[in-house]
Amino acid sequence: MPSKPLFAAFAALLALTAAVPAGTAFAQQRPLPTTAAPKAADQTLGMAIMSALLDGDGNLVAGAGATSSAYDGGAKTYIVTFNRTLGGCVSSVTPWNSKVIAASELGGDTAFVYLWNVDSSPATVAFQLIVFCSK
Prior knowledge:
Layout: H1 4-19, E1 47-54, E2 60-64, E3 66-72, E4 77-82, E5 90-95, E6 100-107, E7 110-117, E8 127-134
């Protein structure tokens, strides 16, 4: 649930937008494109989105497309395997601790996630991994 100040700010923005008269420049929209959007590399439109939610021990709690996960304590790396190759995909990691820095790299069907505390020591916290691929 969003915080009350954030919700109030969003509600105020919606009210302001609704109060703008239809003929003003602010209310006018750019025309919709008349040509189709470019196709993805595999000649389809769209994007495949996969995800994984891991706890600090490396257990897969939830996800879409993720088939297994583990934590390699020696390498201080979380390893998440997906049900397709991740070539040409990009990823985003969100640690469930605001004082943790995250990075990831993709190879084959696997994502490797690295977490550090602000003092550069390895972190073991829950995180969410999102992987975006051409459909």
